[in-house]
Specification:
The structure is a homodimer of 310-residue chains. With 310 residues, the first copy, chain A, is of the alpha/beta class. Chain A has a single domain, classed as Ribonuclease Z/Hydroxyacylglutathione hydrolase-like (Metallo-beta-lactamase, Chain A, 4-Layer Sandwich), CATH 3.60.15.10. Chain A is 17% helix and 23% strand. In chain A, strand 5, helix 4 and strand 6 form a beta-alpha-beta unit. The longest helix of chain A is centred in the middle third of the chain and has 9 residues.
């Protein structure tokens, strides 16, 4: 199984278009220790030929151009693509807008929770992915589903499971609801298994908290790509960028007693890679104390183009 | 007035993600005479500091990164952008999806026809551009409107006018209507005037036909950016890419007795630049007979990053 990080940034990418904060400014200026990051997406393949996108970021056209594995096969028909399916973990802009790039009557499958598929259905612009050749397949929670696309068995199995999280920002409801209208299935994690080898990994790019069911689920895993949005819960406020904590945005932090660095310690997960890293996260700076903390704890900071084989 | 081409390609850009045709294959392989093109957008500024987007393509994040004029001002606040407004000429995916990149609570103005604004309103994903700070301003036809954004007079005037065209593909209706549900305002052209100098140019990236009113409108103009989608009406079919003519897609061709090269001859327009160039257009190849025809007729083929001062 081959896994590639297409985009390791959070929503907005790195740098973010309108951000003049210390990290976005530094990467825009080409400061050593910083590298640009497109928005959150992985690609996975069991055979190196047919690929499944895990989330479809607004930068998908650029990501396809930058990754030759995702180019049309040169000896194939006039219209062809190795992208056979996309699995969505929530309805955030950074995870669904890339679908709009996959137009021009190319068959593939879209997998997502009922809640996420309903958002796509409610926005007619996604009809550019023609319904007659791009089936939208509901992912039930806690069930193993074999992935197919364009009539091909992709050799991979996905299991979706609910994780603590929040509804997409643009769908938030006001009023009394302290969770902004979020329900189960608004944010999911995925376990992807290679049918041939039986080896598997987890992908959880958005997660508010590692609660007991999640800890139980991922315990002893071989590999996880996990929510690396923020280093500290208050960093957006401290840097003057936004009046929201990580918890308000539905994201756990790396640091702190209930941060991912700490709570993963007893879980015995062999390889841990942060993705969905926000432009405010000091661990983006390879020379920062935050990055040293992350690496000392045995974590890796994912980057665009990073490849992992399992 | 400074005008920059952010993206000179048509929908899908060049190469197109799933296209294995001769031109997309050639540019992907780096063949001499070909250059990559992002999707259709211009930027214009009267002062070099505040900018107006003419259409917002799905590649906008990459286009902002590639054009330092559009970066936040280094000495400005933590969140700032020189992008103060976007004017939309139709609701095609390649012209509106970029708006989704302009999130993170940045004030700017969106201008479009009633019909285009209705499409944006009907798709909740565009609510990422918060209504309270991103006004959506209806552009009446045949009236001069002064452009403003984020409380700033942008020093430019726009006049929108209907041009022969078609409704966006994803909004097409079936049935008996031979124009697929299109109405006036689905496709518009723009005249942009610099308020200080009084000089102006036209921007018409989608146009099915140069009819008498349009010819009258643009006659004697100093500069036009015009629909360069196809070289011949049948080229998509001839190259095996799609069973649609240019006319079916709402686009005039460059060549032929009713093509733009011919019908512009009596109009006395000083500078003519093709934009919105489709991946099937042989004029994309700098060494092609088609390119020689275009240049011999005094036209230029627009490219990403091209700058024109007026």
């Amino acid at each position: 199984m081959i896994i590639k990080i297409l985009g390791s940034g959070a929503g907005g990418g790195f740098p973010q278009w309108n951000c003049n904060g210390i990290h976005s400014s530094a990467v825009r200026a080409g400061k050593p220790g910083y590298r640009p990051r497109t928005q959150s997406s992985l690609a996975v393949s069991s055979d190196g030929r047919n690929w499944v996108l895990l989330n479809a970021s607004p930068d998908l056209r650029q990501q396809i151009a930058d990754n030759p594995e995702l180019h049309p096969e040169k000896t194939g028909p006039l219209r062809n693509s190795p992208v056979k399916a996309a699995v969505l973990t929530n309805a955030d802009v950074d995870h669904i807008v890339g679908l709009i790039n996959l137009r021009e009557r190319q068959p593939f499958s879209i997998y997502g929770s009922d809640r996420v598929l309903a958002t796509i259905k409610a926005n007619s612009i996604f009809d550019v992915c023609a319904n007659d050749i791009v089936p939208r397949i509901a992912l039930p929670l806690d069930e193993k589903i074999k992935l197919t696309g364009d009539g091909i068995d992709l050799g991979l199995t996905v299991e979706a499971f609910a994780v603590p999280g929040k509804i997409a920002l643009f769908l938030e409801k006001g009023g009394e609801d302290t969770n902004y209208g979020s329900r189960e299935g608004d944010t999911i994690g995925l376990e992807i298994t290679d049918n041939k080898t039986g080896r598997s990994f987890f992908y959880v790019p958005g997660c508010a908290e590692v609660d007991a069911p999640l800890a139980q689920k991922i315990k002893g895993a071989e590999l996880i790509f996990f929510d690396g949005t923020l280093f500290t819960d208050n960093e957006m406020i401290d840097q003057g960028l936004m009046q929201k904590t990580g918890q308000r945005m539905g994201h756990i932090s790396m640091s702190g007693s209930d941060g991912s660095l700490e709570v993963f310690k007893p879980l015995g997960i062999k390889r841990r890679i942060y993705v969905h890293i926000n432009n405010s996260n000091p661990a983006l700076d390879e020379n920062s104390p935050a990055r040293k903390d992350v690496e000392a704890a045995g974590w890796e900071v994912g980057y665009d183009g990073m490849e992992v084989r399992l």
